[in-house]
Design a protein that fits this description.
119 residues; 6 helices
Length: 119
């Protein structure tokens, strides 16, 4: 999709409602050219999923947060991601299963999905 079409698509999304699936598809397709819009969509969706609860929602939220980390790494905004993640963890720290998904794997120190979450 050309840059002009992405600009028009984001304008339409801002002025009209669209489905969550359409919004996520636009965010994914335009990550390279419109990273800040994509980050906003992913952050909002991760919040929704964390509020809904349930392992599948938590896993999806974690994958979105990982995707956000990749975008911010590309932008050189690692500190922004660390701040976002710290705030996200602070708001949802009572959700033990979500925190387990966001925490490092004890065996090898790697993260399941989200990067550097600490509570």
């Amino acid at each position: 999709m050309s840059e002009k079409l992405f600009v028009k698509a984001w304008d339409v999304v801002r002025s009209h409602k669209c489905s969550e699936d359409q919004l996520l598809a636009l965010a994914e397709a335009s990550e390279q050219d419109h990273p800040h819009e994509a980050l906003s969509v992913y952050a909002d969706r991760a919040e929704q999923l964390a509020r809904f609860g349930g392992r599948e929602n938590y896993e999806t939220a974690s994958r979105l947060i990982t995707r956000m980390q990749t975008i911010r790494n590309r932008l050189g905004a690692n500190a922004d991601h660390a701040a976002f993640l710290a705030d996200f963890v602070s708001r949802h720290k009572a959700k033990r299963n979500l925190m387990k998904i966001l925490q490092p794997d004890k065996a090898d120190g790697s993260r399941r999905h989200a990067g550097s979450a600490t509570a």
